[in-house]
Amino acid sequence: MDGFKILSQIPMDLLNCKHLRLFLGTPLNSVTCRCVTLLLVIIDLLTTTFSGFAGIEHGNIISIHNHSLSFNMEFGIRKPVKYLEVPQLVWGLNNQKIAFARACLTARMPNRTLLMPSLSASLFYKEIDLLQPISFGNVFQFEWFNWNCKGFVQLGRYSDLSNHTDVLELQKGSGRKWTVERDLDQLRQFSKNPYDKYEIIQIVGKNPFLWNDHWPIKDYAKVLECLVLVDKISKEADKVVSIIRQKRTEIVSERVPYYVAVHMRVEKDWMIHCKKLEQRLNISELCSRKEEITQRVGNIEGLKTPMVVYLAVADSLLEDDSILNVWKNGLVPFEKKKLGVVGIYKRYPYLL
Where are the domains of the chain? Predict the structure, then answer.
């Protein structure tokens, strides 16, 4: 019953089979999902009936059963709520996720709520003027993130602000004299008075991904585990996976769900970056040629052939179009054009 007690506190608009599977960590068929959801609705109605809309006090936290109210009231975030604002997150989607986690953990240090940041939808290399912003809520589920990460980190909306002018700018340090220790000391100072009195601390300067890193890996993992794609994008990704598996079935004449996906990092933006880094560090192990990548995939222990290999690669930044021609026998490579899913990618910005 403890599990149902916890689940019964989840807002009803978050309950569906997909979310129940994520929360419980176990597969549920459609009938079971409907039964569990119905039971939770009944529990929610009974709880609301007996407690009314005034809420029930648990220690120092007030639990409100009117689900239209702010999540901040449900989670017991400090009152009045104070916020951290960060610049638009850029580069690849995985880089943006890391930057987002770093922004969340930065906000957590002074016990602030992170204002929902803007992500980037366009393929970004150096064309900053072409950068296309996209709302966090159009990519990841805002409410589900706050439920998953309650008590750890929280997101807020700009509509939650009471005073848009009560802002203090935090200029991130830069230059050779700026150290990890100085960066951390700056964050500590901004967690105290007189800085703490401002409703919003707005970080300006370098992109969040370039901030110094002060947080343990497990904290990053906690934040990233709270991210759930919106259904519209998740369903399109499921379509791509379904087509990849169909190609495998056609090759081996049986329904085998397994395939290999390779992030083939040979685009010009990465090659420029890694070569400069190799020169700076006086090493020669960062940049991988396509022949190295294909050889490593071919040497995966226990890999049964024939095997479909799906290549994730940025076409517009690719200077060599021969990536499909260097795979050993038994490995059948596909990228989005050959797979026939270009239409799905075009319906959404590249990074999604």
Answer: 1-68, 70-228, 231-347
